[in-house]
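step: validate -> pass
step: tokenize input -> pass
step: predict -> running
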Amino acid sequence: MRALAQKALHETRDEVMVHIRAKLAHLRKDDSESDASAVVSGLTLDGLANLKKVGPALAGVTQDTGNNFLVQLNVPEVDNLFGQVNARAVAFANARAAELVTDLDESTRDMLRDTIATGLADGVDLDTISDRIEQGYAFSEDRADLIARTEVASANQQGALEGMRLAVAHGVKLKKVWIPDADACPICLDNADQGPISLDDAFDSGDDAPPAHPNCECDMASDIEEDAQDEDTDQGDDE
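step: predict -> pass
step: emit ->
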């Protein structure tokens, strides 16, 4: 996953730099931020399309997590549910791979726009702006690593969620709970403070499962509800 992300960013960088250098040659140091936007809006970021190839890897992660979750819950006839998990995992992974390309296209353009506008405001020469772009975070190994970690975490949590949904469909009464990591941010702590919520509900952050943001290391767990009939029986025994 990380290698694919790094390859996509590097190929995008190479195609971007050809365009950027040609466009920057026509800018003056006192040009406005709108000129930076004009340069960026004309870019083609075709290299990012390579990230669609992460679909099978994400599907594998989602499948494994969902199937393992069903086994842990002792869902009846669990072997018959594996195919459903796998089908849902493939659908999620394909959709997420397409979303990822769109998300990165937008965020990459924002980074490039900021770098160009800042360089113009700083009054640096156009070669310096080009170097800042080429060596900047947008195409770095650190960003590739962050993309990989975030997407694998998301695939894991979506697998757990699909496992929960299938468990509920087969008679297990449960809800989901946000488990914050040791360094959880206020957004994630608010999600955790909600306690158990329905599988179809979103957490306060608007997410149906972790991660809520890049570098989020939160987890999600199931909260199995006691059967109401069992509770009534227990209360009767106490009397």
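step: describe -> The chain has two domains: 2-171, 173-239.
step: cleanup -> pass
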